[in-house]
């Protein structure tokens, strides 16, 4: 156990976060997401929801300031989004990055393409539909 690091951060996730460079993207995937289909680097965080992981990751992870650092999947035609999901994510984000803007919503297949190019996918226990969140790493201030 390390001091100052949230207990939800596994050694594998800590290594992944440390290896990432600015501009690298990390997918915090809900439990339904086909993470292994889209990326060879998958970190398991079963049983943890995305808000808990955000609370653990964001003190260690600067969000990108040069582009939109938060992206979520838009609902497929005929589905409805639960606005509480994004609102809860942003409540946590704003604790650590008060000026962060709400996530951009992109089409499901565009999100899958981003997952293919992401540094890693973290498979969570998040059960809410459209609970996937892409976060883009920024430059760590000196």
Q: How many β strands by DSSP?
A: 6
CATH top level label: Alpha Beta
Characterize the overall form: globular
- Tell me the count of domains: 1
Please identify which CATH superfamily we are dealing with: RbsD-like domain
Q: Which band does the percent of strand residues land in?
A: 15-25%
Question: In what order do the strands lie side by side in the largest sheet?
Answer: 2-5-1-6-3-4
Structural class, by secondary structure, is alpha/beta
Number of helices: 5
Uncertain stretches of 5 or more adjacent residues:
none
Main beta-sheet strand count, sense and barrel state: 6 strands, mixed
The average pLDDT score comes to 96
Q: What fold name stands as the CATH topology?
A: RbsD-like fold
CATH architecture: 3-Layer(aba) Sandwich
Q: Give the SSE order as H and E letters.
A: HEHEHEHEHEE
Give the distance, in angstroms, between the N- and C-terminal Cα atoms.
26 Å
Instruction: Determine Rg (CA atoms, Å).
Output: 14 Å
State the helical fraction.
Answer: 25-40%
Summary tags:
32% helix, single chain, alpha/beta, RbsD-like fold, 5 helices, 6-stranded mixed β-sheet, 6 strands, 142 residues
What's the short story on this structure?
By secondary structure, this protein is an alpha/beta fold. It has helices spanning 11-19, 35-38, 50-57, 83-96, 108-117; strands at 25-29, 42-45, 70-73, 104-106, 120-124, 133-136.
Question: Could you explain the architecture of this structure?
Answer:
- The chain has helices at residues 11-19, 35-38, 50-57, 83-96, 108-117; strands at residues 25-29, 42-45, 70-73, 104-106, 120-124, 133-136.
- By secondary structure, it is an alpha/beta fold.
- The chain has one domain: RbsD-like domain (RbsD-like fold, 3-Layer(aba) Sandwich).
- Strands 2-5-1-6-3-4 form a six-stranded mixed sheet.
- The longest helix is centred in the middle third of the chain and has 14 residues, at 83-96.
- The radius of gyration is 14 Å and the shape is globular.
């Amino acid at each position: 156990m390390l001091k100052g690091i949230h207990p939800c951060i596994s050694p594998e996730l800590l290594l992944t976060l440390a290896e990432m460079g600015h501009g690298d993207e990390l997918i915090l995937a809900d439990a339904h997401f086909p993470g292994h289909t889209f990326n060879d680097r998958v970190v398991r965080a079963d049983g943890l929801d995305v808000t808990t992981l955000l609370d653990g990751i964001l003190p260690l992870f600067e969000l990108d300031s040069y582009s939109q650092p938060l992206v979520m999947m838009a609902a497929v035609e005929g589905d409805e989004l639960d606005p509480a999901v994004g609102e809860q994510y942003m409540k946590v984000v704003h604790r650590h990055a008060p000026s962060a803007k709400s996530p951009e919503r992109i089409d499901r297949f565009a999100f899958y393409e981003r997952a293919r190019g992401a540094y890693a996918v973290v498979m969570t226990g998040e059960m809410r539909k459209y609970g996937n969140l892409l976060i883009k790493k920024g430059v760590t201030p000196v």
